[in-house]
Structures are given as structure tokens and as C-alpha cells.
Specification:
This protein is an alpha/beta fold. It folds into two domains: 213 residues, Alpha-beta prism (UDP-n-acetylglucosamine1-carboxyvinyl-transferase, Chain), CATH 3.65.10.10; 198 residues, Enolpyruvate transferase domain (UDP-n-acetylglucosamine1-carboxyvinyl-transferase, Chain). 29% of the residues lie in helices and 27% in strands. The chain is built from twelve helices and 24 strands. The strands form six sheets. It has a five-stranded mixed sheet. Strands 4-5-3-14 form a four-stranded mixed sheet, covered by helices on one side. A hairpin with a 2-residue loop joins strand 12 and strand 13. It starts with a strand and ends with a strand. The chain binds shikimate-3-phosphate and phosphoenolpyruvate. Shikimate-3-phosphate binds next to helix 5. Keywords: Amino-acid biosynthesis, Aromatic amino acid biosynthesis, Cytoplasm, Transferase. Its EC number is 2.5.1.19.
Length: 430
């Protein structure tokens, strides 16, 4: 599918962004491993999350869809999963593949995980190495890439310092740790999103956090089914927040957005850049902090984005690059080499897109330097490279531009945000 961008004069409205992708994956996993029924409310029905859902169906977990985003899962218990009778397809989803690998390394059966062309190029040695230290039996193409074959075995606990701050690696090891003999101890170089830790604690697991260290000691071997209400995805909200900030005379109210501090570095950057973004009705829902967000068009200035902030906004960096192109002065993004191993190389892609738009941008090995503000230009084609965040980033930039940009392969948007275009049409006044 192709998408042609369209200029918009202002954005107005009251929107509910769909459920958080990271929390949705984890809700499916832990509800499946619990005993008894769990109700998931506000589950994101994007392609990535449906891959995780389907994986558990293939492993014998009864999952019922009651209505949009509302599911009942009859958990089979920690030891109740069954061998799938086919290859489990993780599609485009790094989260599905990495979290499932940790879990499956400890099951009493054999699994093969594969994915699309993008996922089969993403590094898996970051989970394979520590899982092998736990005595996992995993085979991979060139010892790093999917398809992965996993022969479940009895694992031993690990005491491990992650080389990069990665919630996927941390979560894979915690899932494996649920089945290991002994205490799992993990340390991160910086705090990555902590949804797994919060949800494990919510399911009654003995998990202790102190700064960047985590200790998991499974004293009870039973998670109890429960209700999980999933907040709106801050990473998806970031596209609408950006649009409202950069388009004159705009104002949006976004309801029920997850503002977990390990995940909402984007809001800090917006504040730092002078963006008018107000959080109201702050509350905690199913263990996750949530707020409604009011955002208004603003005059922005450049910012420095690096270090510990990076893992808290890693998926938002492509759209932050658009904010930076409209901000007065220099924005420096550093310490973000992880962007090169996402669904596409997001540094290379953003450099090429921004250059086409007429932005003065300099590539760094681990980021970029953007000089603004620039009147963005259109009249070219881009390929999303199968990367949903790249496609949505260009669509938002296009709201400012007279001449359309043609986004090829825009179908990738369904990976995380199937309602993106409908919601954009709902609030944009052309
Ligand atoms: O755990 C998760 O749900 C995610 C973790 C991040 O990846 P890394 O752990 O590789 O940084 C993020 O980019 C991804 O979109 C979702
Ligand atoms: C990197 C992402 O997801 P995943 O790693 O799950 O494919 C993302 O959604 O931007």
C-alpha cells in the first residue's frame, strides 16, 4: 500500500490512542502463564501483538475475544504450555521473538521461531548468549539470526550485567528466570522500560528492584489470573503530540496515556524544547502510571538528547527528529546506536528523509545533529523499509508540507498502530 501525505491547517480534538504495545505483549504472556482467567482490557490489536496472541493459541492457551481490545485468557499455568505443531511466526515483532525465546528455553518441548525479512536480520545473540549461560539450548542462523530453534531444558539462574539497556533482553531473562534453579540477578547500564517487572510484581512474583538491579526469586510457582487494564501507548501518542506542537493553532486532548517514567522520556524532551504539554488526571492503573495529556502548538528550541534518557524514548527518536527540524537551534541525539538494529536502520533512514525535506542534518555513528528551524519540503518518494515508525514519522511531517510525499509500503503502520490514519483524519482540519 502507498500513502500520500496531505497538508493540514490545524489539529483539534479529543482522542483515545490504542493500547500500549509493550504492555499488551506482556499482558498476553503473563495471563497465559497464570492459573485461571485473566481479563485484558484495552489490548492493542496490532499485527505485532496479534503475533504474540497467536503464539500462545498455538501452544494450547484458550484465548477469547469479547469485543475490540477486550480478551479473556484462560491461563494454563507456568508448566501448562504445549508444543506448537508448526513454526511460530513472530512477523515483524522483535518483542515477540525475544521474550518468547526466554520463555521457551525453559519449556519441556521444541520450538522454532521465525519472522519477516526485517526480523530475520535483527540480532538475537544478545539473548542467545546469556540464555546459553543459563544452559539454554538454542540454535540460530549464523548463531545470531532467526529462524531460531529452541529445545527447552532445565535452566540455572544467572547473575548478569546487560551490555545495553534493553527491555527485551531483560524481559527474556526474567521469563527464563521464572523457571531457573536459584536467584536471577540482572543489572542494566541504564533503565529500560520496566513493564515486565511491574507486571510480575502485580502477579505476585517475588521481584526486588534497587536502582538498576533486579533480583528474581521464584518462591511461589503460581501466578493468579487477574484483570489488566492497558493504557494508551505513549509511543503512538508521540506522533499526535508532535503534530499538535508543530502545526499552528492546534490543540489535542489525549486520554489515558501511559506515562511510566522508564518509558516517557519523550515528554521530558518536549518540555525541554519548550513544548506546551500538560498532564492532568494523573493516576495508577494496573500498576502503570497514566494521565490525560493536553498539547498545544508551541515555539520549540533545540535540545541535547543522550545518555540515560535514550532508553526511555528509543522508539520516539524518529519523530523527535521532526520536532528538532522545526525547533530553533541545534538538536544533538547521541548514544542511540540501538536505532541501527530496529525494524530498519532508523539513523540512515531519518538522515535520508530529513535531507530530502531540506533539513541540515549530520549523521553520527550513534545518532544525528539537526539544525532548525526549516520549512520542510515534499515532492519525493520514500519507502518505509517495512518500518512502521518511519512511515508514521513521514506522514506527520507531511502535515506541514504543501507538496505531497509518497510513502511506499505504508502497510507497516499496522505493526503498532492500525488506527493511525483514521485518528489523524478525525482530528486534522485541512
Ligand atoms: O520490550 C519492549 O516491549 C520493547 C523494547 C525496546 O526494544 P529493546 O529492548 O531492544 O531496546 C523497544 O524498542 C521495542 O519497541 C519494545
Ligand atoms: C522496535 C520496535 O519494536 P520491536 O523491537 O518489538 O520490533 C518498535 O516498535 O519500534
Amino acid at each position: 500500500m502507498n500513502l500520500k501525505t496531505r497538508k493540514c491547517h490545524k489539529l483539534k480534538g479529543d482522542l483515545t490512542i490504542p493500547g500500549d504495545k509493550s504492555i499488551s505483549h506482556r499482558a498476553i504472556i503473563f495471563a497465559s502463564l497464570a492459573k485461571g482467567y485473566s481479563n485484558l482490557i484495552g489490548l492493542l490489536e496490532s499485527e505485532d501483538c496479534l503475533k504474540t496472541l497467536n503464539a500462545f493459541r498455538l501452544m494450547g492457551v484458550p484465548i477469547e475475544r469479547n469485543s475490540k481490545g477486550n480478551y479473556t485468557i484462560k491461563g494454563v499455568g507456568l508448566k501448562g504450555l504445549k508444543e506448537a505443531d508448526r513454526v511460530i511466526d513472530c512477523g515483524n515483532s522483535g518483542t515477540s521473538m525475544r521474550l518468547l525465546t526466554g520463555l521457551l528455553a525453559a519449556q519441556d518441548f521444541y520450538t522454532v521461531l521465525s519472522g519477516d525479512t526485517s526480523l530475520r536480520k535483527r540480532p538475537m545473540d544478545r539473548i542467545i548468549k546469556p540464555l546459553r549461560e543459563m544452559k539454554a539450548k538454542i540454535w540460530a542462523r549464523r548463531d545470531n539470526y532467526a529462524p531460531l530453534s529452541i529445545k527447552g531444558s532445565q535452566l540455572s539462574a544467572i547473575n548478569y550485567t546487560l551490555p545495553v539497556a534493553s527491555a527485551q533482553v531483560k524481559s527474556a531473562l526474567l521469563l527464563a528466570g521464572l523457571y531457573a534453579d536459584g536467584k536471577t540477578i540482572l543489572r542494566e547500564p541504564g533503565l529500560s522500560r520496566d513493564h515486565t517487572e511491574r507486571m510480575l510484581q502485580g502477579f505476585g512474583v517475588n521481584l526486588k528492584k534497587s536502582g538498576l538491579s533486579i533480583e528474581l526469586d521464584l518462591q511461589k510457582d503460581r501466578l493468579e489470573g487477574q484483570e489488566i487494564v492497558i493504557p494508551a501507548d505513549i509511543s503512538s501518542a508521540a506522533f499526535f503530540i508532535t503534530a499538535a506542537l508543530i502545526i499552528d493553532d492546534s490543540e489535542l486532548l489525549l486520554r489515558n496515556v501511559g506515562i511510566n517514567p522508564s518509558r516517557s522520556g519523550f515528554l521530558k524532551v518536549v518540555k525541554d524544547m519548550g513544548g506546551d504539554c500538560q498532564l492532568i488526571n494523573k493516576r495508577v492503573v494496573s500498576g502503570e502510571p497514566v494521565a490525560d495529556i493536553i498539547v498545544k502548538s508551541s515555539k520549540l528550541t533545540g535540545a541535547n538528547i543522550s545518555g540515560d534518557l535514550i532508553p526511555t524514548l528509543i522508539d520516539e527518536l524518529p519523530i523527535i527528529a521532526i520536532l528538532a527540524s522545526r525547533a530553533e537551534g541545534r538538536t544533538v541525539i547521541k548514544d542511540a546506536a540501538e536505532l541501527r538494529v530496529k525494524e530498519s536502520d532508523r539513523i540512515t533512514n531519518m538522515i535520508s528523509i530529513l535531507s530530502n525535506m531540506g533539513v541540515n542534518v549530520q549523521e553520527l555513528t550513534d545518532g544525528m545533529i539537526i539544525n532548525g528551524p526549516v520549512e520542510l519540503k515534499g515532492g519525493f518518494e520514500v519507502d518505509s523499509s517495512g518500518d512502521h515508525r518511519i512511515a508514521m514519522t513521514v506522514a506527520i511531517a507531511g502535515l506541514l508540507i504543501d507538496e505531497p510525499i509518497l510513502i511506499n509500503n505504508s502497510d507497516s503502520i499496522k505493526t503498532s498502530f492500525p488506527e493511525f490514519i483514521d485518528l489523524l483524519n478525525k482530528c486534522s482540519i485541512t
